[in-house]
Design a protein that fits this description.
55 residues, mainly alpha, rod-shaped
Length: 55
């Protein structure tokens, strides 16, 4: 039988907080993922420049 002491309760709570913190760090919003994808797509391409209204 496992003893339930304040220390075991605190330890369990801290482990849960750590798991939640890790998930929040790894999670990205859909728009952030979209921006990252666009950055990867256009990373090696030259961007068109606009001169006198023409591309």
């Amino acid at each position: 039988m496992k003893l339930t002491t304040p220390f075991t309760i605190l330890n369990r709570t801290f482990n849960e907080i750590d798991l939640i913190r890790d998930v929040m760090k790894k999670r990205k919003l859909a728009t952030e993922r979209l921006h990252d994808d666009y950055r990867k797509m256009f990373k090696n391409k030259e961007h068109p420049t606009i001169v006198n209204g023409y591309v």
